[in-house]
Amino acid sequence: MRFSISMFKVAILVDLELSPKSGGHVKFWENICYSIKNQKDCSITFFFLGKKAKTIQVSKNITIKIFKPIISSKILRFIGIDADYTDLNFLNPRLFFLLKKFDIIHSTDQLYCMARTAKLASKAWKIPLTSSYHTDAPSYSKFYVTKIFKKLPFFINNLIINKLKIPEKVEISIKKKIKKYFNSCEHVMINNSVKLDNLQIKEIDSCNFTDLVRGTNTKIFKKKKVNKPIFLKKYNIPSTTKIIFFCGRIHELKGALFLSKIHKFLTQEKKINVSTVLAGEDLEGEKCKSICNSQLHIIGHINQKEIASFFNLCDLFVFPSIYETGPQVVLEAKACNTVCVVSPNGGGKRIKKSGYDGVVIKDLILKNWVNITSDLLLNPVKIKKIKNNLQKDFDHISWEKVYRDYFLNKWKIIIRKRNE
Questions:
Q1: Three-class DSSP category at 14
Q2: Helical H runs in 45-165?
């Protein structure tokens, strides 16, 4: 049966918990959802996880459905896996039958319950499946598997980690699963460097690939004046010091512990008067404090307007995370004219050229990060030069444009071909 393109229904599956503390993967789709609430092209339902099942009617054509996970990954906390919660069950029967009424299904991961349900529903109901790649799941898995085995006696963990190389084998296995999932999709949005370098995907016959583009909320993340003494006073941070800012999950995976070591050397060895501020979900704040308590401020979760103010008043945004597909937080920092110091496999994916619109440090050698960061802090002319480049050469892309140009148009083409 033919139908008007304007009438089609889209299901977007985000197999993570929707909450104020959610990470970049969830925030990506939350930003899309509320930026297009008045669109009239199609009917879209966003599926998230949550503590309670409920439906939120955002607008006439935009709905959020929250499912309670059948088997929450929260049960893995006791063995040290503290990643964002997802659903570990193989299939969600209720979601499977709900998906029958949609004209296109879009999964935002390739491994867990909603993604597996989407793949089965796509085959069963003959519905086109597209996907986007937001999280470096293979590297995350390798990290957590290594962390678990390191708790075992040395002779056992040495055998498993260094000789049998089980963490590497887990990583390879997950990459294969992701590639196999892509083979079931008609279109995939993925950062091109991740596709070629990390997943080593050259071509999959049944699937087309385009770059996963991210937007910024320019009403919040923009260059603006902030009264530094008054703003910092409410966080008990001295306004007379240099400020290094970090925003993300305060966890080893995001580089928070590594940044705490950098801060220790800057203050104790380099004798620089600097305050380092860590904002975000506080998972390992105490560990950060144990590395260096002096002038290290753990402020936990704050809203986006406060984050934007920190971006505007800090001297540097230092984000050492190496497990990223193209971090949103670096784009938001750059939108605020903030100089970012990042790793190539993390925030470096959002830097055009090191030294031009940010600084990319090629390794995780502490001495190099300390020396480069201290050199920037003591040479404001270098910071100003990068800020000038950002001001004239940062591409502000709205979330609505990301939706229309990189998702909606692709979906329309796929549906049109199906109905020719």
A1: strand
A2: 93-98, 113-125, 137-149, 154-158
Contacts of 321 (CB under 8 A, 6+ apart): 248, 253, 254, 255, 327, 342, 343, 346, 347
Q: Residue type for 1, please?
A: M
Q: Which residue has the higher pLDDT, 323 or 260?
A: 260
Terminal alpha carbon distance of the chain:
11
Please give the C-alpha separations between residue 167 and each of 76, 172, 199, in angstroms, as whole numbers: 17, 9, 16
Would you state the structure tokens that stand for residue 309, as one six-digit string? 């103010």
Helix (H) or strand (E) holding 278, with range, is strand 274-279
The one-letter amino acid at 202: K
Alpha helices in 36-110 (DSSP H): 93-98
The answer to whether 349 touches 324, Cβ cutoff 8 Å, is yes
Q: Which of 236, 272, 377, 271 is nearest to 317 (CA)?
A: 377
pLDDT digits (tens, 9 = 90+) for 352-363: 999 999 999 999
- pLDDT, one tens digit per residue, over 221-245 is 999 999 999 999 999 999 999 999 9
Report the SS3 class of residue 417: helix
